[in-house]
Design goal:
Elements: E1 3-7, E2 10-13, E3 18-26, E4 32-39, E5 46-52, E6 58-60, E7 68-73, E8 78-83, E9 92-100, E10 108-109, E11 113-118
Length: 119
């Protein structure tokens, strides 16, 4: 089992940047893909980006291309989501989650970290 802890959220002005972190507090990311999702108030949770731990292949939702970058740090067993040029519509709770490398369903989820972008 993998336990996930997100951090790095906060209040930021539009145009600013944030780097969110997703650390495995128990277990490792080996043989997994890690995804970032977000849920804005009153909206459904949506996929943002994912990375396969072994090999580092990345995938982005079309709307995330250009401003979002997912990366990993092998030594720290941590996945990051860098967000540039933040917009008020990026305000959401951001979650990381884990699925098997070849699976479709994400099975382990973190508790989420709040990102609030002021205009």
């Amino acid at each position: 089992q993998v336990q996930l802890v997100e951090s790095g959220g906060g209040l930021v002005q539009a145009g600013g940047s944030l780097r969110l972190s997703c650390a495995a507090s128990a277990g490792t990311f080996s043989n997994y893909a890690i995804g970032w999702f977000r849920q804005a108030p009153g909206k459904e949770r949506e996929f943002v980006a994912s990375i396969v731990w072994s090999g580092g292949s990345t995938y982005y939702q079309d709307s995330a291309k250009g401003r979002f970058t997912i990366s990993r740090d092998n030594a720290k067993n941590t996945v990051y989501l860098q967000i540039h040029s933040l917009k008020p519509e990026d305000t959401a709770v951001y979650y990381c989650a884990v699925r098997g490398k070849f699976a479709n369903r994400y099975v382990y989820w973190g508790q989420g970290t709040q990102v609030t972008v002021s205009s």
